[in-house]
Design the sequence.
């Protein structure tokens, strides 16, 4: 009897020791598979950090992925909490209920369940406006990301940070896992002239960070000066994938239904903007890939020969129910994951593109938008020239390694930390407004400096004690005003005590190079292509007209330098645009089909966009 008890005790101790050993891991290895339990930021906030929102008017940026570990909605948890005053909701692409298709304009409305206003952050307005935030003191961000640099939710966070900086609001990120892990970083670091909706927030294809880490990095790297707090998860490790967290999976958008889809997206999305399909319109998007002219058996054989770690391929034939090749029989492969921790997703995507192009080069096509997808101007030409995948990836390696060690690794909140990296320690943040600083020679721009200490207390800044410097002889700062003198690019640096902020600045004539338009279901979009990003324009409303005025704006590019007109076809709200140059100002007159019209001005790099609502 006693020997039996001793035997049982020994077995229990051995199991305990084995379990303890299993939780010890190194970077790149998945640990605790199926056993770990992660507590997401929303639960940590309500259990341990409630004082951060108590007594404040709260706005929540969320969607269906904003749930606790029991699948209770963050909206309901906050709205029903006696110590939380939830006053507004904000929805990204697909809306707060996730019922909008990709790229579809999401209208603002009143939520039936709570009676709260729901403001769209996708469509004409990507950044919360001052009007949207009039009843908000602190913004909460609670959305599940999937680790790719072209998934729009992280840029919703970035634009929310811009609004928080400009309108002096607090922002709290309720952190969630990176479902594809936090160790691997892959792909070229996006160049500034290869962006679409990303704005200033430049990332590699696979960034290996949580949304809380991204916000922390952006706040410092772009000198945003946001009163930012991150509610860290409990229990998350960088080497976890989503299945290791113990959390329930909620599909992040209509075309990311499963954890497997979320994992492969950062790789197989690289088939987009070509004549290949990523499997949209099937039950396995981003797992099924191909084209009508692909031999599935030959492709599977070729891909398996390439011996890509962590995956296998089987031939597959499928007929998309919508999207590209709707109703057509498509040949290709299904990507099967053996070991997610071993997969280099960017290599996977490029090998698939390479193999399918080689099978039928005459049928393979690539759109100009591929540059925006991959984030690098050189890669599309290398693909079309049949350069080896290894050589393509080598082309960005040095820049990526520098970004990882000198930028990304300074802002990591969770272990295990990469070799040589230390956990991020809270520190104050100083910011310079405007966030986009451009001027023409002779122009002056008012500057604002705002900041917070490491405890989130607002710095009481005495403007007379700010030390200013301007590089490259482009101008000077006096009494908080930047005076542009000579054309060029440089930096404006503000130092206040132990805090420093810098802002890139470009001094050049503002050239309006083209006027384009697109007619969408809900709005007509007018685009003014510029040679740089500007924010000093204004729109004047008149009866049946809008006047866009750009100080120091000149006519250039494809436009008639004497002025002219652009006819707008098929729009229910505008007939034409007249433009001319007068008294150091570019003026465009929108000729409307009604006395007044609602419009929005979403922000993009190097262009002014005006969305006229139908």
Sequence:
């Amino acid at each position: 009897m006693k020997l039996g008890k001793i035997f049982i005790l020994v077995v229990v101790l051995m199991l305990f020791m084995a379990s303890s050993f299993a939780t010890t891991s190194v970077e790149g290895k998945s640990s605790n598979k199926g056993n770990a339990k992660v507590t997401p930021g929303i639960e940590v906030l309500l259990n341990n950090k409630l004082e951060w929102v108590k007594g404040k008017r709260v706005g929540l940026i969320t969607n269906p992925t904003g749930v606790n570990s029991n699948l209770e909605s963050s909206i309901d948890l906050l709205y029903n909490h006696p110590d939380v005053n939830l006053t507004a909701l904000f929805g990204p692409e697909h809306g707060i209920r996730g019922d909008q298709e990709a790229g579809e304009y999401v209208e603002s409305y009143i939520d039936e369940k709570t009676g709260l206003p729901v403001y769209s952050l996708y469509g004409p307005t990507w950044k919360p406006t001052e009007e949207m935030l009039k009843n908000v003191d602190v913004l909460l961000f609670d959305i599940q990301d999937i680790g790719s640099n072209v998934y729009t939710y992280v840029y919703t966070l970035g634009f929310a940070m811009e609004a928080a900086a400009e309108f002096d609001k607090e922002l709290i990120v309720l952190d969630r896992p990176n479902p594809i892990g936090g160790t691997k970083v892959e792909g070229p670091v996006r160049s500034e002239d290869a962006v679409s909706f990303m704005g200033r927030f430049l990332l590699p294809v696979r960034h290996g960070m949580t949304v809380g880490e991204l916000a922390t990095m952006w706040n410092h790297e772009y000198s945003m000066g946001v009163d930012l707090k991150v509610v860290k998860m409990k229990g998350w490790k960088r080497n976890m994938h989503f299945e290791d967290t113990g959390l329930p999976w909620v599909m992040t958008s209509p075309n990311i239904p499963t954890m497997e889809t979320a994992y492969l997206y950062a790789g197989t999305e690289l088939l987009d903007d070509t004549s290949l399909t990523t499997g949209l319109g099937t039950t396995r998007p981003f797992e099924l890939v191909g084209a009508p002219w692909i031999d599935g058996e030959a492709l599977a054989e070729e891909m398996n020969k390439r011996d890509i770690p962590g995956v296998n391929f089987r031939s597959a034939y499928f007929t998309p129910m919508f999207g590209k090749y709707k109703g057509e029989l498509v040949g290709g492969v299904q990507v099967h994951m053996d070991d997610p921790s071993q997969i280099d997703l960017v290599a996977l995507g490029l090998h698939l593109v390479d193999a399918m192009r080689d099978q039928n080069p005459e049928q393979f096509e690539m759109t100009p938008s591929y540059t925006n997808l991959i984030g690098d101007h050189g890669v599309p030409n290398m693909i079309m020239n049949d350069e080896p995948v290894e050589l393509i990836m080598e082309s960005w390696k040095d820049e990526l390694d520098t970004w990882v060690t000198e930028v990304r690794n300074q802002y990591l909140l969770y272990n295990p930390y990469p070799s040589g990296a230390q956990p991020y320690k809270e520190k104050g943040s100083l910011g310079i407004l405007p966030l986009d600083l451009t001027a023409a020679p002779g122009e002056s721009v008012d500057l604002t400096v705002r900041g917070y200490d490491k405890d989130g207390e607002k710095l009481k800044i005495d403007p007379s004690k700010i030390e200013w410097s301007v590089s490259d002889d482009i101008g000077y700062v006096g009494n908080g005003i930047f005076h542009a003198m000579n054309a060029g690019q440089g930096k404006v640096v503000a130092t206040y005590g132990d805090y420093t902020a810098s802002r890139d600045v470009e001094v050049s004539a503002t050239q309006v190079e083209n006027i384009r338009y697109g007619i969408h279901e809900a709005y007509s979009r007018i685009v003014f292509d510029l040679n740089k990003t500007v924010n000093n324009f204004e729109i004047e409303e008149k009866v049946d007209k809008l006047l866009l005025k750009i100080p120091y704006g000149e006519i250039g590019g494809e436009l008639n330098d004497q002025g002219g007109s652009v006819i707008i076809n098929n729009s229910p709200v505008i007939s034409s645009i007249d433009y001319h140059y007068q008294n150091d100002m570019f003026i465009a007159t929108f000729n409307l089909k009604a006395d007044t019209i609602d419009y929005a001005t979403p922000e993009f790099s190097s262009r002014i966009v005006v969305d006229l609502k139908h």
Summary: The longest strand covers residues 510-519. Confidence is low (pLDDT under 50) at residues 1-36. The two ends are 84 Å apart (CA to CA).
